[in-house]
Specification:
Number of domains of chain A: 1
Strand order of the largest sheet of chain A: 1-2-3-6-7-10-11-12
CATH superfamily of chain A: Aldolase class I
CATH architecture of chain A: Alpha-Beta Barrel
Oligomer: homodimer
Largest interface: A-B, 69 and 69 residues
Distance between the termini of chain A: 36 Å
Strand content of chain A: 15-25%
Amino acid sequence: MTTHFADRLADAVRRAGNPLCVGLDPRWESLPKAIRDRHDAGSLDGVAAAYEAFCLRVLDLVAGQVAVVKPQSAFFESCGPAGLRALQVVTRRAKELGLLVVLDAKRGDIASTATAYADAAFGGTPVAGTSLPVWDSDALTVNPYLGRDAVEPFIRSARQTGRGLFVLVRTSNPGSGQFQDLDCGGRKFYRHVADAVTAWNSENIGASGFGDVGAVVGATHPAELAELRTAMPGVWFLVPGYGAQGGSAADVAAGFRKDGLGAIVNSSRGITFPFQPDDRAWEDAIVAATRRSVSELSAATHG
Amino acid sequence: MTTHFADRLADAVRRAGNPLCVGLDPRWESLPKAIRDRHDAGSLDGVAAAYEAFCLRVLDLVAGQVAVVKPQSAFFESCGPAGLRALQVVTRRAKELGLLVVLDAKRGDIASTATAYADAAFGGTPVAGTSLPVWDSDALTVNPYLGRDAVEPFIRSARQTGRGLFVLVRTSNPGSGQFQDLDCGGRKFYRHVADAVTAWNSENIGASGFGDVGAVVGATHPAELAELRTAMPGVWFLVPGYGAQGGSAADVAAGFRKDGLGAIVNSSRGITFPFQPDDRAWEDAIVAATRRSVSELSAATHG
């Protein structure tokens, strides 16, 4: 029997002793010169190979320290088919190292189109009676704008395979309030989305007390994070915005339950690019940045 | 100098004499048996090759009759890297045939992540001073939930290269009202999104009187379509939901301006799968279905 996603996540975070999620957002101009020099900047295949080499090295450096990684699909897609082949290699390696993989693709579409995205993300594309694996990630970020038809096929596909979702509720960007903060009948729009996520999540609660439909809630809005933590006690949060985007460990503290569970906190650039490209000690810099964030977040979790 | 996207679209629709957009949503179980039999159902590479062969044949059959095609990224992604290679081949061939290509990927993310998606969709990924082409489509569908940071990088990238966007406003699915119809200060949520789209669009109006930030408005909500046509006179609409989803030619008539421009109307399954897999005359069925929709929609446009 497949273990419930929420329980796998709770176990992994407990084992690691911290809620850090390492975001994999490779960018050519930020890569170590040592890696760039070995690859062809003139072709997408070359760039994709550099992204793959860099991300594989990052995985080796952070495995054992953290529980979760989050590849950002946009950067792999930006290298075309070769970039998506690299995404597959990186995902497979992360899982071999015992890391959970959240694919950050913010997909959202209706009916059979949503099912196609979801099957590709999780159990594989069904063709002539068998499922062909595609991205094979543990969880996926999903955009709720289209309504229940855009989310339910993802939930169905995730539940069949013991995977999870993180639905965008309150994002970390400066312009997030333009629509998410609109007052709808005395409550902000994102609270209506939060209610829907809470209902979907409650349909399938695991032994850990958490369900499999999580929420994305930005670290850059600590008051909303606290408010949503109270309103959504059984919902796992994926918290972006910590580190380079400005959110501090104190800002994310409100995202955890008393037992220290309930949120994973993402840092991308802060962990993977804490160096200049010509810095030969870039690997040491990644290890040090990971240790620093792990220690900050452990303190915030158990504070 | 690059021609404005809205003008290219207006010219293409005028030349074709109808607003039909053919959606390319390949699915293994719907493909003609003649194509399935030549490909390996046991590997994603085989399935992707079948999708490519089918879509290329559809392009040959509809070119000259219609102005626009809309590949649905989900189905190409569902075949992994090989599927995305097929998407590139299909897009390139569509452009060679004089068709405009709207990539339906409903992307939305913030800051540099949105820029990565946008550059890949349009002018190419910038690496070490040059732009490497990736999807190279004429327009892209975009999800507005994250707010202006999620849309403005797409607008910037589109404007640099004479491409266009279609931002989700009122989608065609049965559950679209769950969030889009929430009452926010006396107006439904989607009207607030429509206002933002109208403002973005007004920043760059072409000779045709239309701008480059379009809106997705479903055919299954004719009253809202009429209301939005009046409220957003210079905005191109992409209208899904006609045909297999239940919207009729009469339902979409309200989407056009008096001059017959202003909307492209998508049909996917209705055009590309009007046959049973073992029907040997599947190509004739596609040609006939295209002619029928073209004639219905020409009448609706000039009604």
